[in-house]
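task queued by scheduler; priority normal; single chain, no ligands, no partner chains; default sampling; output format set to structure tokens
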Amino acid sequence: MNKFIHTTTLFFVIFLLINCSNKRQFVSKPTKSLVNPDSELLEVNAVAYHLNDSITITYLEIKNENLIYKRPDTTFAFYADLRISYKLLSEPNSRKILDSSSYHLIDRASETVEIKSIVSKFNLKALNNSDYYLDIQVFDLNKKIKYNKGLNIYKKNNFTQQNFLITYNNNISFKTNFLKDETVVVKFSNPAITQLTINCFFKEFGPALPPFSTKVQDEFKYKPDSVFNIFPSQNQFELTMPRYGFLHATTNSINTEGLTLYTFDETFPGVSNSDEMINCTRYLMSKEEFDGCKNAADKKVAIDNFWITIAGSKERARELLKKYYGRVKEANKYYTSYTQGWKSDRGMIFIVFGPPTNIYKNSKSETWVYGLETSVSPLRFTFIKTQNPFTDNDFILERSQFFKDPYYTAVDYWRQGRVYLNNGK
């Protein structure tokens, strides 16, 4: 009997250790920015460009707004001191490092620090026929804070978005969205690219369906509204952005892999006007309220009155507006795919429920957990990554009737003039 108990106990301990190990492999805490849009998160952007079969250049942009600038004494200039390190892995959380290095980056300033972007680059030894994950760490040595940035590296074929380098006004572009009528120059090094097919998509997308909806989301089929061909010279070509929608450049009419550029307005990822404010607030509105705001003679007055009504006063309405549209901005920054992030499934959940307590990730899905996992029934949302020729940031929520009560509870909380936050903090 004692032997059986001992064996059973040992098996249970091993089982727990295995499960805890797997759990740690995929869990990540949300960044400060997700917890609080007004936080001092360092904004780091990265772009990968495949120079040839074995070398990938990674361009790094660091917004200096939240860096600490110091000087040893009054005889020296102010400076930001950064250490950049990176690891190339076969997949996220892999222990096998394929390439790695680190370097110092110092930015000197005068008596006043100009708000700007600090740009640097490094080469990766990334061979063709494989995909990778690049783990980048930026350590602010003056502030003693480390920031992480992850980037998928795709090298299974020679015609992905990372085989093209976007430039705007003779500078590397760290974004793929531009204003209407802006012209970008796209460079490439692959000599096999002699012709490109430009597919134009002008479809307007609506907000995500509620998490409990049984309605089938409209499938976005790969059927462009118009098509034209270009013949680049000197390994580059120009594209002028349409009034709205996006452009998708491919090497032929059959291959769907390629470069995608989007037209958004000048305030993106923020909210630009009353029309967009009304659209973004659809998650909290009844159909009658939404139609009333959309058809109002003065839409600004209409949306302002909506917030004042649910908040109870102008002062509380201002605070509520700031938090809600702050989440919209965060959703646009993190979850934009072929449409604005606030319209995506992850954007909808983030806006209504706020930042999750924990995020579990692997190469195929994300699971967001709200509330303490030691509680009886923490709320879990699972998003499945879709195969999308335009973006690698498209995730679809696994919907369930179970989410109906929590969703309406969160919406009602907002409509009572309070910011909903259920992340166990």
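post-processing summary
- Residues 31-156 form a domain with the Immunoglobulin-like fold (CATH 2.60.40.10).
- The radius of gyration is 24 Å.
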